[in-house]
Amino acid sequence: MNKFVIEGGRRLTGDVSISGAKNSVIALLPATLLLDVPVIIENVPDISDVQICLTILRALGAEVERLKEDTYRIFCPKLLTHTVPEEQARKMRGSYYFLGALLGRCGKAKAAMPGGCYLGERPIDQHLLAFETLGAESLLIKGYDVKGDPFIDAVELRADELTGRNISLNVVSVGATMNAILAAVRANGITTIENCAREPHIVDLANFLNYMGAHISGAGTHKITIEGVQELRGNIAEGSEETRVYSVVPDQIEAGTYMVAAAATRGDVMIHGVIPHHLKEISDRLKECGVRVDVIENEDIVRVHADGSRRFRPNNIKTEPYPGFPTDMQPQMAVLLTLAEGQSNITEGIWEDRFKYVAELRKMGANIDLTRDGAILWGVAGLHGAEVRACDLRAGAAMVIAGLAAEGRTEITEIQHIERGYSHIVEKLRGIGAEIQRV
Ligand code: EPU
């Protein structure tokens, strides 16, 4: 089993570039099934979730060509099947976007329940609500666990026709909003999605589809309107060789992770290729902790600089849907707060089980108590290296930051979780002075 070995206590300094957003690209790739023409997607992060999506696309019949390290040409003129390969579907959460995309393309879709990080229960009732509102029938295929209790094992969707309607989500859900867009973009008539999520990746999916000829407005607000279209060909004339090129939005969470890593190691790092207003909440919290965060040059660089002479100030954080503090930054920020002088509080407002990293962080000297929906962090002067595991993707990122900030050697196992979402993390960190190896 591979692991990361970190010799901690080095200040991170220098320049690092951010890749395209995982949680966007995993929807953009399925969305290519809805297009009538080939598309080139740039700024694709080199992460295992992308490779799984590409494997699924190929199995469904798409032509996938890697043009450059981060650039792919994708086209699916003929669909071979409407069933997502089971093994791939179970490997990642975002595989459920193939349900929306296949339903939108051919009125049929079947997939095993998605995998991904276990963060507590992850129901898909809001996705089904969206599909059913548009006129699909859903068949839930049951499995039975070792105790004989039933669970939903796979989903099959069918629709003779999808018709635009008003979808009112009961829960603000990123996944359900994305899937509703995918299913509605070629439906007949006008769909509205109320109480939708507003994350940058929702806007990116809408921008991508609009660029290819969709009529989606309101992405980034609480209400999205989609006027169904017959074709998605990006204004490219029949027979033309021209191909549209789209670049994935920068990863807000990857950027935030490097920001916290820079701060926690008392470093001075220029983080390139970001959209600073996506990072506002993270920047504000860091500033309140006493970290300097400046947006510089042509506004796509943030510089994070932490003075080593003072302890961080404590803070209280509550995770919320965008534009609130992102749950996907909660474990990383906890590492910084564990080094603050005094008591900090974290309330997790999205996932019921996103504190598995606490047991690992305690092995490194952190003093954290868990509460019903959060954690109380009693700041300590420093962390020490230990053998820890990456319980899930962001928990793993937190372990990397803790290892970088700690004195001594940290070994992190189960790094496959980290590699699902962080492109070239070892190379990027080494580039800013970290002593980290993948062994
Ligand atoms: N929810 C429902 N029913 C649904 C869908 C969601 O009750 O049908 C609940 C969830 O249980 C949760 C809340 O709604 O309490 C929000 O869930 P959401 O659907 O927004 O999450 P998701 O789409 O499953 C995505 C990201 C997560 C990120 C969340 C919140 C992907 C593949 N995953 O999950 O990313 O935490 O949005 O921003 O895009 C990560 O990258 O580490 C990660 C876990």
Question: Would you write up a description of this structure?
Answer:
The chain has helices spanning 22-31, 48-60, 86-89, 97-106, 125-133, 174-184, 200-211, 252-264, 280-288, 330-338, 357-363, 393-405, 416-419, 425-431; strands at residues 4-7, 13-17, 39-42, 63-68, 71-75, 108-112, 137-144, 150-158, 166-168, 190-194, 215-217, 223-227, 244-247, 268-272, 292-296, 301-305, 316-318, 343-347, 367-370, 374-378, 387-389, 409-413, 435-438. With 439 residues, it is an alpha+beta fold. The protein folds into two domains: 4-19 and 251-438, Alpha-beta prism (UDP-n-acetylglucosamine1-carboxyvinyl-transferase, Chain); 22-247, Enolpyruvate transferase domain (UDP-n-acetylglucosamine1-carboxyvinyl-transferase, Chain), CATH 3.65.10.10. The strands form six sheets. The protein has a four-stranded mixed beta sheet with strand order 21-22-1-23. α1 runs parallel beside α2 and α8 (252-264) runs parallel beside α10. The protein is globular. It starts with a strand and ends with a strand. The model has no long low-confidence stretch (mean pLDDT 96). Bound molecules: uridine-diphosphate-2(N-acetylglucosaminyl) butyric acid (EPU). Uridine-diphosphate-2(N-acetylglucosaminyl) butyric acid binds at residues 23, 26, 93-94, 117, 119, 122-127, 171, 173-176, 197, 327-328, 350-351, 393-394, 421.
